[in-house]
Amino acid sequence: MADTIMDLLELSLQDTYSAENQILAALPELEEAATSPTLKQAFREHGEQTERQVERLEEVCRMLDMEPDGESCAAMEGLVEEADDMMEELEEGPVLDAALIAAAQKVEHYEMAAYGTLCSMLKAMGQTKAADLLSQTLKEEKDTDELLTRIAEQEVNPAAMQTLPADAPSGGTA
């Protein structure tokens, strides 16, 4: 039972640690399913980055004398399952790439919320070194989200638009 802010912090660190490990396991599947070389590279590089983020979480837990392993993150399980469903339902190509970006951005937004919360708690507790470590990860998650947006807007979404039937409504103003 969690009664103190330290209990909440430990549960939050464990949840985030679980989430990062789940996405680390899922990223190779996302990379394999993507057809866009740019998107494949983004998933590969984010996997490498996620390994460093897991190490940072382990370091913060050591600094605070907390155990990183805990319950499985149910939210990340749902997000990964949603991505799996998209990979099963959609044909390989730009529409699947667009769906993979959407799924990955949901993950990034979840992680940004988690790291923002962790940083705020750590700062309130005077744990500035731990907060600084996780602030690096928060910045990386934001940067990844922005990269995915650029890939979607500049490459994947325009390619996916080519799959529209000729008589589909256009994106004009109403």
Automatic annotation (TrEMBL):
SUPFAM superfamilies: Ferritin-like
Coiled-coil ranges per UniProt: 40-93
UniProt keyword Translocase present: no
Statement: the UniProt record of this protein carries the keyword Coiled coil: yes
CDD domains recorded: YciF
Stored Gene3D superfamilies: 1.20.1260.10
InterPro entries named in the record: DUF892_YciF-like (IPR010287), Ferritin-like (IPR012347), Ferritin-like_SF (IPR009078), YciF (IPR047114)
Keywords for the protein's UniProt record, in alphabetical order: Coiled coil
Name of the protein in question: Ferritin-like domain-containing protein
Species this protein is from: Belnapia arida
